[in-house]
Every structure is written in C-alpha cells, then in structure tokens.
Amino acid sequence: MAASIGAVVCRALHSRRHGKFLSIGRGLFSGARCLVAEGETHFGFQTVSETEKGEKVYHVFESVAKKYDIMNDSMSLGIHRLWKDILLHQMNPYPGTQLLDVAGGTGDIAFRFINYVRSQWEHQIRQKLKSHQNLSWQEISKSYQEEELKLPGGSQVVVCDINKEMLKVGKQKAQHLGYSEGLSWVVGNAEELPFNDSKFDVYTIAFGIRNVTHIDQALQEAYRVLKPGGRFLCLEFSQVNNPLFSRLYDLYSFQVIPVLGEIIAGDWKSYQYLVESIRHFPAQEEFKAMIEDAGFLKVEYRNLTSGIVAIHSGFKL
Amino acid sequence: MTLMVSVSVVRCPLYPAQRAFHASALLRRVSDEQKQEPPPSSSQQRFESHPPGDQPDQEPQRSHHSYTDQGGEESEDYESEEQLQQRILTAALEFVPAHGWTGDAIAEGAKALGLSVAAAGMFHSDGSELILHFVSQCNSELSNLLEEQQKLVQLGQAEKKKTDQFLRDAVEARLRMLIPYIEKWPQAVSILLLPHNIPSSLNLLTSMVDDMWHYAGDQSTDINWYTRRTVLAGIYNTTELVMMQDSSPDFEETWHFLENRIADAMKMGITAKQVQLTGEALVQGLMGAAVTIKNLAGLNQRR
Questions:
Q1: What is the pTM of this model?
Q2: Which residues bind S-adenosyl-L-methionine (chain A) (predicted)?
Q3: First and final CA of chain A: distance in angstroms?
Q4: Tell me, what's the ipTM?
Q5: Which residues from chain A sit within 8 angstroms of residue B125, using beta carbons?
C-alpha cells in the first residue's frame, strides 16, 4: 500500500519532468510549476520539497514492488482483500463499463473487476434461459467460449500507475492468473492522466491518492476523464472514529508494521513512511469537501473497519 | 434555477464560479442531448399513454428543462440532482419489460439519456427506487384523471357517478396503468414488501386510496373514514393479485372480480347499517318490555 502511494507520486514527478518532451503546452506549464513554485510538502512526518517527495516515493515503491502483495496481506491480516471486494460490490459495474484504475500497480482492483463482470454475464445468461427468452446461437456460443475474445459486454479496464516496477509485477500476476482480455497497462501520472476527456465510466484509486503530491489536481483529472454520469470511487486509509480503537490502531501501526516491513520486505523506512502518510491524509469529511470542490455531486463516504479505511464515492453529473 | 445556485453556494464557498461553470457545462450538454433525442421521450409517452387527461402531468416533468417545445433555443435551466434522478428513472421504465425491475434497467435508462451506466450507482441495486418512482407516477396520473372528471361534472358536462361505479372506474383505471409491466409486476410487488421499502410503499398505497375516496365524495369524520379506506385498500390489493395471474382477454375476469368485491363492500355497508338499526330497534323493544313488566309488577308506583 505504501508502495503504490510512493509510486504514484514518483510517477507524478517523473512525468512532469518528461512533460516537456511529451506535450509541449502542458509540459511547459508543469515544468514552470516545478521550477518556480517549489512548495514544501510532507513525506511521512518529514517536510520535503515537492520534487523530492515524488522521487522518494518512487524509490519506496520501486524497492517494495516485489513484496507488495505479501506485505499487504501481513499488515492488514488479509482484510485488504475484503476492503477491495466491498469496493467492487459498491461499484456494481454493469457490463460494458470502462474502468480506469489509477495507482492500480499490481492490479488487485482490475482483476476483481474482471471477475465481477464475468460472473454477471453468466448470471445474465442464466436469467435469460430461465425466462425462456430465445438466445441466439451467437450468444450461446459466446457463453461457452473461453475468454478468448473481449470481456462480456465490452467492459474494459485500464490500469494506470506511475511506477514501472509495480506495473511489471502486475503484468506478471495477470499472466499467471490468466487475465488477458479487456486489460491494459499504462504508465501515467494521476495529476496528468494521458487520456482524453470523457472516456471512462468509473475511476477508481485504491490506496493511491495519499501519495499524490497535489490531491486536488488528481481529483480534477478524475473529473476530466470521466463521462457525464461517471463515478469516482476512492478507497483510502482514513481517520478512526472510535478513540479506544484508535489507540490500539496507532500502537499496531507504529510498533508492528515497520517491524514486519523489515522482516518480510527488508525495508523499515518504507513502511514507516506508510503509517506516517496515513496520519497526514485528510479525514473523511475534509476529503469529501475536496471531492465536491472538484465538481463531483452526490458525494458520500462509507467507513470500513470502523474508520481505518473509507470508500468515497462521487458522480460527475 | 436558484436551487442549483444555492446548492453550489452551500457546497463550495471558495470556488462558486468553478462549480457553476461545471454545472452549467454539464446541463448545457444534457439539454443538448435532450434536443437531439426526442425519440426516448416519445417512447416514454407510449408507455404512459392513457386517457388524454395525462398531458398535464407530462408537462411538469419536462418543464424544468424545456420551455419551448418547438426545438428553439432552450433556456438554460439548472437541474437539481433529484430532478436528474427522476429523469433517469423515467427513462429506465422503458427497459423494465426486458430487464425487470432491477439496477440493470436503471443502467440502461441512464445510457438512453446519454449518461454513463455508472450513474445507476446512485440508486439501490435492487431497483426499489425505480418501482417507487413508477408507483408514485401512476398515483399522480390517477389524481389528475380524477380531477379532470370532477371538473367535467362541475361544469355539468358529465353526470355524477354513483359511489360504487366511481370506485370501480377509479380502481380499473389505476390497474390498467400496470398493464405494460404486468409480466414483471410480481417481482415489483415482492420488492415493495421488503422491510426497508414497506414505509414508502404503504405511504403510497394509503395516499392513493385517500385520493380515490376524496374524489368519490367521502366526507366522513368518524370511524367510517378508516373503515372505508381499509376496505378499499383491501379491494385494490386483492384485485391486483387477481390481475397478475389473469390471462383472459383485456383482463375481463379481473374487472368482473372487482365488480363483485365492490358490490360486496357496498352490501356490507348497507348490512352494517341494517344491523345497527335492528339492534337499536331490538334494544328499544326490550326496554319497552321491561317497563311493561315493571308496571305489571307494580314497581313503578310511587308511594
């Protein structure tokens, strides 16, 4: 989780540097931003310049990319799988949905999306059979085909991440698990997405927005690439509301997680960064206000595990 | 118009201009799509096509986003989220025969309006909002219909119907609105009976029944008020159930059943009155007999 965070920010800065070459207008502007207004920001509990933060986070994720999934499982005791499942359940994607998963690194959300869409398709086929509608031979043969052609209904998922190492791990996982169709991997910066306007139905960012240097820019980019009626979903660590539980959680975060990081991934500092960055992220209501500022309507949030994690949802209406 | 502006002021004190820009940009886009897509709205009319008294209630629904019907310059109207949700649900009704009362129909409805299918995420995935929207739409259509009829009676252009005939026609008109969706209606009824839907569906049922009695001329202020509405609700529900498994041409058996039930209810009313009168008469007779016996026994004499 820390890895993806750092990766996003690192990627943010990298592409900003390369921005000049990729797209002149934008690049110049962002380059100018880089040189002129180098603000200060936080990297965990340290204060660093914005450029530095990106680099540091990139290195964090580069180093943990291979052990990322194992660390997630051990830190959250496997609960992160439930969180991601709940996110997909809340999304409830209809066949034909175009999903953009930003900071999606190792592809957890993307794979779950593919599973969901596939099972929905089977459900639809079964329903049609039940209601005695005549299926055309095309549809019947489609349901028997292995996933050779596109995903049912034309759904597609694009995984975008700033860190190439994380994407590499993700691609390997996809090959290993057999996900190939309807899936694409793109290197990109959450603050400057390499996509056209109004392209996606759903935009998700799971445990990634914390690492973005300019969260409001990322939110504005999300607004830009979503179609009208599109949905923004963000799964992120948030503030625990129960005081007693909060103390236990703090204890666990600062005493146990970095130790696990050292033992399993050999990297104390990255996981120290992780738990510190969680504390710096705005609370649920504040983040909700930020999302509304970007133009989203019907913004709601839902706490999971009494506030350790929150899912924020907004619509571009 | 002020609604949306005030919403943006409340939400975002720092960037009102930005939000207004976003809002108006979207709405212009949406209203453009409205201009380009007359077919969906006309097919909405197909499903809601009933006696001509329906035109008035089509207008309020659409008036918020088009003041001219000639396809001229459409005034930029701010649409609140609720109004957009209403529009999506109305568009979704078209897809109900194919997809049932589910989130899928809502997704298709959103797609028909030019929005992304993810907009269906605004609603429950079980389709309850769609059903409640449909029921309240039918109820308002019915109110308008009854009001039209009342106006005609007041103007002297039609005769005032007797209560049982009136109720029969009202229930029949209301049930006919279900005919396009009758195949999937059992699913809708079962969803309306879910615990989290019961308050809303009960509310809609009672207001509909209240409406019917009001236009039938009920002015009771005693226990009759409750009994009449309960009886009519019972008649409506049972007739609805009969209709769902009726396969006769144009649901003749259902209307026959309805006629019988209303006749029963009327008879019950008359019988109740008769019982009451008989009871009173009986009591009076007994009192008279008691006084006579007292007289005979000499107990009434004053000493």
A1: 0.73
A2: 106, 161, 189-190
A3: 31
A4: 0.76
A5: 92
